[in-house]
Amino acid sequence: MHVVATAGHVDSGKSTLVRALTGMEPDRWEEERRRGLTIDLGYAWTTLPSGQDVAFVDVPGHERFLGNMLAGIGPAPVVCFVVAADEGWQAQSSDHRDAVAALGIEHGVVVLSRADRASRQRAEDVLARTRSELAGTGLKDAPAVAVSAIDGTGLADLRAVLDDVLSRVPAPATTGRVRLWVDRSFTITGSGTVVTGTLAAGTLAQGDRLELLGHADSRSVVVRAVQSRDTSYTSVGPVNRVALNLRDVAAMDIRRGDALVTPGAWPTTGVVGIHRTTGVPYTEAPEQLTVHVGTASVPARLRPFGTDHARLVLDRHLPLVLGDRMVLRDPGSRSVLGGARVLDADPPALLRRGDGAQWAERLAAMDPAGDVLGEVAARGAVQVQHLRRLGLLSGDDAEAPSGVQAFGDWWVHAPVLEAWQHRLRHAVQALQERDPLAPGLSMGAARDLLRLPDERLLSPVIQGAALEQHSGHIQLPGSQGNLGRVEPAIAELERRLSADAFRSPEADELAALGLGARELAAAERTGRLLRLRDGVVLLPTAPALAMRALARLDQPFTTSQARQALGTTRRTAVPLLEHLDSRGWTQRLDAGHRTVVR
Asked: Residue 442: in which H helix or E strand, if any?
């Protein structure tokens, strides 16, 4: 299926031409048929000689309805540009030419209509003028056909030319995300809400859940049924005119310019960075503009950064990505100011002095095809999925460019990663120097310090900074056994416990050595001591030594028997036995008996 939009001045015979090609009436309104003037978008379709199906979006030519025209031509990849052979190029022809140029449309046919009303010389002159006017657009080399919808002259040639042109249009992507710009919304009795639009890429199927991005809010909707050309399908691919019967939404809640998109696959933005493709320099454009994209028409404010680049603030959020084409109009007139291409669909906020100049410099240096490295550098770190949503990456397999480190689904700019590593190491080192007994910098403190976008990035930062992680704390390599000033006291305590393994020091003995709770905790973290409840302190080897002695007792044994076998006090024996229970080495049978677990 292909979709072709008409373009051309008022009374050029566009609707008559579509009617002759398809045998269908494109004008939907009684007023249009009565006045012989297309006011809104019309739709018709046919099958070409090759068997290709083609749908036409017939647009109005009158200057008062240029907004409707842009809604029709915006999503269409091919244009049938019509100029009346008897009247020649008109002012509205220039408006439509500017729209074609602004949208970057490169495929189409030039039609000289009403050939029966013009001499051969007149037709040649009109074609020459048309060629001259279209020279700066994608239609500069488009084939031309003179036709008369009245007597049928040239219609067969036009069908053949359309066949050839459409065969050269690149095939759209049938998989991937969907963005359907709505051009009509209405209710059918017994079915409910129906919307129509041109499906440019992706596939729509019955039962699909889509996100409706409306004028006021967004909501989830379900596709109840799919039609194309008055025929029901279970699924429809691009490029196609589609009608979707939607569930969970009223027709009055959907308007032209809304979009139906794959949930979670499209960013929505109210600010974009743009590059001028056609039209007046931005320094000469008015601040207040009307922006046309897809079928949407949105008021916007333009902030120029030179003649060719600008920041555009939209009145409402739209699903826009890199490369999207826009038509800019002056709301005070009906003319097209020019075209723009989206370069930055998610620009940073300009909060400080100098931010604007810095961003403008980056914008001017952006590759129209996409600047992945620049986007990652601007953010410091970004998820790959976000780059795909912005249109900077395609496909499932993407390699990080030079200067970017990949950690799972995150890409981090190398200088930012190095800065994180340096800052973390400096903080850990400063803490170690200030307080050698500290367990290290906690993971939470490290996250707060670095303000990482995802806590999963902390581990590679720790590793890259040549630091170590123990029990939820970050330390310098080799610092785990460094006890600083309390080292002599711990060594003395170790000597005493080595001589008498189960004689836990009393509180006054520990105080005399200068060992408080903080010092003992530091020694325990380094594996030098074992702390049990009630202030009992032993060597880490004490449990294994105790098990040797307990295993020699008759089983089961009492607490008193264990105390005697260990040669210690009840103050030490009870916490030690409870520790052995917790490790599963002994088992408490009742209030007074235990047994060794073999």
From this structure: strand 441-442
The answer to whether 19 and 25 are in contact (CB under 8 A) is yes
Which residue's structure tokens are 């060597």?
A: 539
Distance CA 502, CA 499 (A): 9
3-state class (DSSP) for residue 95: helix
Characterize 86-102 residue by residue with b for buried, 16 or more Cβ atoms within 10 angstroms of its Cβ, and e for exposed: bbbbbebbebbbbbbbb
Q: pLDDT (tens digit, 9 = 90+) per residue, 387-413? A: 888 888 876 667 888 889 999 899 999
- Rounded Cα distance between 281 and 284, Å, is 5
- The Cα–Cα gap between 200 and 202 comes to 7
CA distances from 413 to 349, 367, 562 (A): 20, 18, 62
pTM here? 0.75
The rounded distance, in Å, linking the Cα atoms of 66 and 60 is: 7
Copy the structure tokens of residue 405. 């480190």
Q: Is the pLDDT of residue 485 over 80?
A: no
Length reported for the chain: 598
pLDDT(438) > 90: no
Q: Taking a C-beta distance cutoff of 8 angstroms, is the pair 45, 228 a contact?
A: no
**How far is 192 from 199, CA to CA, in rounded Å?**
21
Nearest-5° angle of CA 84, CA 87, CA 89? Answer: 75
Q: What is the CA radius of gyration of the chain?
A: 38
